[in-house]
Amino acid sequence: TILAYIRKIFPQVNRITSYARSHTIARKSEQDLARIAQAGLNRIHIGMESAADEVLDFINKRVDKKTHIVAGQKIKRAGIELSEYYMPGLGGVEFSIANALETADAMNQIDPDFIRIRTLAIPEETELYKEVQSGRFTPLGDLQMADELMLFLENLNGIGSTVESDHILNLFQDVEGCLPQEKENMTTLIRTFMVMDPQQQMLYMVGRRTGIFSKLTDLYDSGLRGHAEQAVFAHQVTQENVEEWTATMIRQYI
Question: Where are the alpha helices (DSSP H) in the chain?
Answer without folding.
Answer: 2-9, 22-26, 30-39, 53-58, 65-77, 96-110, 127-134, 142-154, 183-194, 198-209, 222-234, 242-252
